From TrEMBL, chains A, B, C, D:
<dbReference type="Pfam" id="PF01841">
    <property type="entry name" value="Transglut_core"/>
</dbReference>
<keyword id="KW-0645">Protease</keyword>
<dbReference type="GO" id="GO:0008233">
    <property type="term" value="F:peptidase activity"/>
</dbReference>
<dbReference type="InterPro" id="IPR038765">
    <property type="entry name" value="Papain-like_cys_pep_sf"/>
</dbReference>
<dbReference type="GO" id="GO:0006508">
    <property type="term" value="P:proteolysis"/>
</dbReference>
<keyword id="KW-0378">Hydrolase</keyword>
<protein>
    <submittedName>
        <fullName>Putative cysteine protease</fullName>
    </submittedName>
</protein>
<feature type="domain" description="Transglutaminase-like">
    <location>
        <begin position="159"/>
        <end position="219"/>
    </location>
</feature>
<dbReference type="InterPro" id="IPR002931">
    <property type="entry name" value="Transglutaminase-like"/>
</dbReference>
Length: 265, 265, 265, 265
């Protein structure tokens, strides 16, 4: 399917503020970027680099005054998300090196504290994909999804205590549970076609059966329409923007995802 | 300055043919990609990766029949190319690690064979930028530039014998001469505003005074307008396309570079 | 100075247990490994890789029974640790790309929560080295160092509440405070000559004045003798060993660091 | 099997000379370094880094006078070299990204010029391992191996003309032939137990059936005993030492490889 996605953010800047943005999508195994537009107003020098997860990041100094970022992208993705019941657990000794860091605890995923709980949730499941599916189902049934919940970043342990969360929070808990079973798991920030209300989305991927698979506890079923902006161990690594100095928040933010015909590409 | 660049290539494919393309420009210290379009007809699965030089590469299988690639990009670059007479030579022990591989001989730059010649060309110059400038001047004065010369890839040593070459050939010889003086040098494939006749261009960069500087022996003077597609040790690393199996050549190829107003971005 | 360092660890393994060890030291700008021995008993297949921080990691499956690791190393380091009062803060836009990830909050360094506190601690200091020195002094004066304290991993915020910690804890708090001032900071695991009691040590580095400098709030003054095993954002990244499955602890552990003559190398 | 390997080199230095050495072996899938010694006389500052192929490189300035490097290593390797008749060709689209650069022509492997010849040599073979084996056999039968031949670096095309070569030359020709068939191939510099006369050795690896396999046209059959020092596209990438400035050669060089008992490790 072809999607056209646009994203607008405006900030009101009071002192020159360094930003690291992650708003340039990458073409990858799951998505092809056919066109892209990235507008910064007022225009300032931007330096782009690739972080250690392969994400394209833009570094700049936002000047005083209103500062607007607009991006749009035309992207082709598969109509379906791959799913594979029974995909086996990969032994630590057989994991690719690039995947190993996704086994470790990280800022918002205290995986070392979830061993017993993960064992209980996945009891009786085949090792691998089916365990992760059981975790996703457990999250959906247990942790209340509040799409318009707080923007405050909280960790998997905190989410598990308060029993509700935004998409990112459910993903963090899913990741922590996977890693406690020695299944590599990572956070994906991105867009989802048909999301209500439309905004940035976050889900998680687990590495089983020799590849990454998509999981999302916030949706009743896994349909197509996922477009990745960036990958990381958790939200500390993969932020739409990181900003340094006194905190600023967008005064305006809008995301739009629409289905288009191939002929309109 | 703002440029709008487009590139069209068509191939006539007789058996399914793997390609690795390098046609997705990166934003970097010298250029900002404000918008981009990348069209492949017929559409096939494409996998994009970053090579060890930081270039974005697209891997695909071209199917039988006409196969067309069209890209366009809107890019902002500096009005002037930085030049710095007197920028000093950087001792080997102080070079950044990422720069060291640009000291070694490579496929088309037999730098180990040019020591005496480079010493002669640069005699009396301050070590560093001024040496490279003397090499660029020597190339301009000595090696006949034939913009529509052969597409055959030849090495610096061969260019030095035959005394003429396309832009890539002059750059290869410049690179070999620099490296023989222990100055890191690399090839840049890209576009140049105002080039006559308009097509892909190649120039070289040398690392002196703690950064890369641009050199181009094919132009009378160094004006602004350089847009990089990719970087590498020589043309073996940085090809607009690499194609595997029986060779195919574009049946059609066109490059267009025009100056635009910021208001038209 | 030349040091001979040895490290012994024994585990009692009840089920085959995957390990990722970080016990192969790297030669670097600060240290030269002249000889090294790495013994694993019983011998099992080991696969070594470089993680994204440049550390050499060894992956293996420990078999059932006693499992012993012994390493020793002869290393040359500078007699003094470099210090540089007044080394200036580096603006975000001028930081090398490889340093940027050390600005972000991480598992044990919740830097986003320490902005006000860091501002207070460093009030009146020149931006850069002097700020970090003030943080180190504040840690030394404020957080009780308990070298034989708990092995439990706690975060900077928790350390700040309980007001005591092991070397790693003081470092985590120092790192969080630095990052909250937009100064990149990282954890170093390693050895320190003369440490009492002798065991593994941890300290931190901050990036100011264009390079990394060493800080250690657990010592009254900064003397020579620091040997790095690994670098990372915090203890989640840089562990002497990570072990998967039911937890096992060393039944025996010993570290020895002695000064030797160059003639004994 | 366990091997103890030592390597001595002495240079007579007349002006301070920058060197990049590649004499620190890496543990990897095929070998485990149990102990290692690396001595430089006189001792000078050394900076070690990892190149883009994963090799550990040592950068230093050799001072005027005799300059000696001695390394020794105790290494465990498999008793046999893996061989796998019938291991299939991997389609370009399925090759790991890290392998793709080994498809390109490089300094000493002009793979673009060997397509017809490779097709002829491998006619009738199954695609993949069997093709490479046919190339190895053809090299052994056709190109005269002169172990004490010239040190001059020549390319695959030149070797093919003169019909003789040192180990490195036969490997370069093998690599060029493989790549011309779209089989990734790379050069390995290292040691071989039992080599006569004993010195550094070079062989090549080809990527088929999803992994790298060893090939060596200089030996009658493929026995165990291969220890890798470094990997690269060809000898331009993987040099025991690169030296900058006026050329110097070792005044003394010695390599020793002996079989030891595990009890002597």
């Amino acid at each position: 399917m072809w999607l056209r996605i646009s994203c607008d953010m405006t900030f009101d800047i009071t002192i020159p503020t360094p930003f690291i943005l992650m708003l340039r999508l990458r073409s990858g195994a799951q998505q092809w970027i056919a066109s892209e537009k990235y507008s910064i107003k007022p225009m300032v020098p931007v330096f782009e680099f690739t972080d250690s997860y392969g994400n394209l990041c833009q570094r700049l100094i936002a000047p005083v005054g209103p500062f607007a970022i607009q991006t749009s992208v035309t992207v082709m993705i598969a109509d379906q998300v791959d799913q594979q019941s029974g995909a086996p657990f990969v032994d630590i000794e057989n994991l690719p090196e690039a995947v190993l860091s996704y086994l470790l605890p990280s800022r918002y995923c205290e995986s070392d504290r979830f061993g017993d709980m993960a064992a209980e949730i996945t009891a009786g499941q085949s090792l691998g994909y089916d365990q992760v599916k059981a975790i996703e189902t457990w999250l959906r049934d247990t942790i209340r999804f509040e799409p318009s919940g707080s923007d405050e970043l909280v960790s998997a342990a905190e989410v598990n205590v308060r029993q509700w969360g935004v998409c990112r929070d459910l993903s963090h808990l899913g990741i922590a549970l996977c890693r406690s079973l020695s299944i590599p798991a990572r956070l994906v920030e991105g867009y989802l076609y048909g999301l209500e209300p439309m905004t940035f989305h976050a889900w998680f991927e687990a590495y089983v059966g020799g590849r990454w698979y998509t999981f999302d506890a916030t949706q009743a079923e896994l349909k197509g329409g996922y477009v990745a902006i960036g990958y990381g161990r958790d939200a500390a690594d993969v932020a739409i923007y990181n900003q340094f100095g006194p905190p600023v928040s967008p005064t305006y933010q809008s995301v739009c995802v629409e289905l288009i015909d191939e002929s309109d590409v």
